[in-house]
Write a structure and sequence with these properties.
By secondary structure, this protein is an alpha+beta fold. The protein has helices spanning 26-32, 59-83; strands spanning 40-47, 50-58. It has a two-stranded antiparallel ribbon. The longest helix has 25 residues, at 59-83. 0% of the residues are buried.
Length: 85
């Protein structure tokens, strides 16, 4: 990935309070379509034993990605299992 890609940018700097909470700015919530009650998944990436990147994704997007990735695999396994009977 080209780090100079125009789609990658710093939108806000967040502070974490003593309880570990942070606030997503209203503009970011609006642009991302995040509404009260929405569930977000926190995805982390480790490099050399330390977490270096964090992503927030709406859970339905995460589930869609998992289904898209694993769906064909599960279909192939089911076909192979049926052929072995």
């Amino acid at each position: 990935m080209d780090l100079l890609d125009s789609r990658l940018r710093v939108d806000a700097v967040l502070s974490v309070d003593e309880r570990g909470q942070m606030v997503l700015p209203k503009d970011i919530r609006r642009r991302a379509g995040i509404e009260p009650g929405d569930k977000l998944a926190l995805v982390s990436y480790e490099n050399q034993g330390a977490v270096c990147c964090l992503w927030l994704m709406k859970t339905e997007q995460l589930l869609g990605s998992v289904r898209q990735s694993l769906g064909p695999l599960m279909d192939a396994l089911a076909e192979n299992q049926g052929a072995g009977e």
